[in-house]
Amino acid sequence: MEINIRPVTPATCPLYCNLGIKAYKEHYLHLWKNSDPSPYIQKSFTMDMVNSELKDSSSYLFLIYSGDKAVGILKIIKDASIAPYSSKQAIFLEKIYLLNEYSGKGLGGHVLSWVETYSLNSNKKILWLETMQKGQALNFYLKNDFKILRAKNHPMKEVLLDHKPMYVLFKKLKNT
């Protein structure tokens, strides 16, 4: 499986938005009242929002390709502190969303490996993320040597109460 990760450009913003919405809806509708993720979609996948993120010097957006087909998105915040680590030491993996038909095929592991290499090349010591306490994502990250730092709740009020629990996970990066 040939994996390719390419930066989002103004020309590919619509593709990033469409893929993000589709992948998110395939995996996360169960979190939302009336299966309506529109508050999150408005916060994450409008053209205005994505264009403003492209102008943010710490925000990095990518499209994930399998061969020539765009199959997911990736978002990294390059300078994101997490106590006790400074923004110079830590990088935040905000999103890896893959289309459902590409989940469970090893693609996420390849993307995560790419993110770790990217982080090391950026002189980061810590990679961290937030994930739901319920679901497959937590197991994926734990299998990839992430550790639970602490619990938290999803900040959006529209998320169903029993799906609000999240974990903050981190991984100490090592040069190989």
How many helices? The count is 5
Biggest sheet, spatial arrangement of strands: 1-2-3-4-5-7-6
Percent range of helical residues: 25-40%
CATH homologous group name: Gcn5-related N-acetyltransferase (GNAT)
CATH architecture type: 3-Layer(aba) Sandwich
CATH topology: Aminopeptidase
How many strands appear in the DSSP assignment? 7
Morphology: globular
Q: Radius of gyration over alpha carbons?
A: 16 Å
Q: Provide the β-strand percentage band.
A: 25-35%
Termini, distance in Å? 23 Å
List the secondary-structure elements in sequence, H or E: EHHHEEEHEHEE
Q: On the 0-100 scale, what is the average pLDDT?
A: 94
Number of domains: 1
* Main sheet overview: 7 strands, mixed
CATH class: Alpha Beta
Low-confidence stretches: none
Structural class by SSE content: alpha+beta
Task: Explain the overall architecture.
The chain is α+β, with helices and mostly antiparallel strands and 176 residues long. The protein has one domain: 3-Layer(aba) Sandwich (Aminopeptidase). The chain has 5 helices and 7 strands, in the order βαααβββαβαββ. The protein has a 7-stranded mixed beta sheet, sandwiched between helices. It starts with a strand and ends with a strand.
